[in-house]
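Lab notebook page, bench 4
Experiment: in silico fold of construct C2
Operator: M.H.
Input chain length: 146 residues
Purpose: comparison with the prior construct
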Amino acid sequence: NDKKYNHLKVNKLNYKIHGDLFNESEISIYYHFVCEKGSDISKGDYQLTLKPMPEEFLLHQNYPNPFNSSTMVKFNIPEPSLIDLSVYDLTGRKVAVLLSQNVAPGFHEIIWNGKDDKFLNSPSGVYFIMLKTDQYRKVKKMLLIK
């Protein structure tokens, strides 16, 4: 075959996929590249997993609340951030540091087992969970019942 083609080098193709995503979604992408004269250059398909990203910082109410032995705390981080997620008692004393580190954007969750930083069981009572970043600070009330 003596056909000569002018090659077009493509370094990067960008696609925008729009839609409402509330959970991870798998989509199939089919591609088909054709030259100007109509013959196939390349075609195929592949699977892509899309993960939605939060648009704002958010600390959700823990669940269950009240709780007996452990509770789940969910929070949203829209951009890479240094966060501090800590538990305080009614006097404002820091009881436990659940997370103090750089966190990637996304929907996160962590379980508090009702123990303090010395791994001792915290007594029944009202506690506060605080999420702090450079741009955001939010507190939620939790009730530990034994």
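Observations: Residues 8 and 35 are 10 Å apart (CA to CA). The two ends are 82 Å apart (CA to CA).
Next step: discuss at group meeting.
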